[in-house]
Amino acid sequence: MNKQKDLWEKLAKKNSKYYINSDYGKGINNDRFRESGWKDFVRLIESDKLIEKNQSILEIGCGNGRMTEFMPRFFNYVVGTDISGEMIKQAKHRIAGIDFIETDGYTLPLDDNYFDIVFSYLVFQHMKSKTMVTANFIEVFRVLKPGGIFKVRLRIDQVDNMNKWWAGVTYTEKEAIALSEHIGFGVIKTEQVEDYGVWLWLIKKNC
């Protein structure tokens, strides 16, 4: 049984927009939801000089496509994956022209050395085991082209109750770097987000 998959199936059916980004409350409407996706896309991807545009991009934990929706404006090929089949169903209903794929949370049913960019925002912070985090890092390394970039945010704040829907495993910045380098990534840059998160910009070194 995949408890994390079951959890996100339930949350997606209950109120997908809220559980994708809870900052705007449970009553967020469609217009505000799309606006939030666009603002985060511009802030985290379009304005990021380390992410070269007009390439292929994979978003891990795309939800119902809140940010994925805007990626075809700047990228040649876009794929979104999510552990929740319900999220993927909603994404396909909302947005045409993007490949949305359900996963088991550990593996990516995608070819080796395929993507230029892999991106993940409010996703790894909810993973409830370091085994799942490590498995995803290994899979990202596999599907990235040599020289490809992985931008991801991890949780650094301690969680007392892992049964909370938003809870996830914690890494120090040093631990996050060690994990990345052990898998084979080079670390381009790190950036702490207040006292709860750290962004990593990783590169798949040319073999």
Characterise the protein shown here.
With 207 residues, the chain is of the alpha/beta class. The chain has a single domain, classed as 3-Layer(aba) Sandwich (Rossmann fold). It contains five helices and seven strands. It has a seven-stranded mixed sheet with strand order 3-2-1-4-5-7-6, with helices on both faces. The protein starts with a helix and ends with a strand. The mean pLDDT is 96.
Rounded Rg:
16 Å
Question: What percentage of amino acids are in beta strands?
Answer: 15-25%
Shape estimate: globular
Class by SSE composition? alpha/beta
Total strands: 7
Q: Sketch the major β-sheet.
A: 7 strands, mixed
Number of domains: 1
Mean pLDDT value: 96
Using the coordinates above, name the CATH class: Alpha Beta
**CATH-defined fold name:** Rossmann fold
Distance between the termini: 37 Å
- Examine the secondary-structure arrangement and name the CATH architecture: 3-Layer(aba) Sandwich
In terms of topology, how is this protein built?
Blueprint (H helix, E strand, L loop, with lengths): L2 H18 L9 H17 L9 E5 L16 E6 L2 H10 L4 E4 L12 E6 L9 H14 E12 L17 H11 L1 E9 L3 E8 L3
Task: Label this structure with key terms.
Rossmann fold; 5 helices
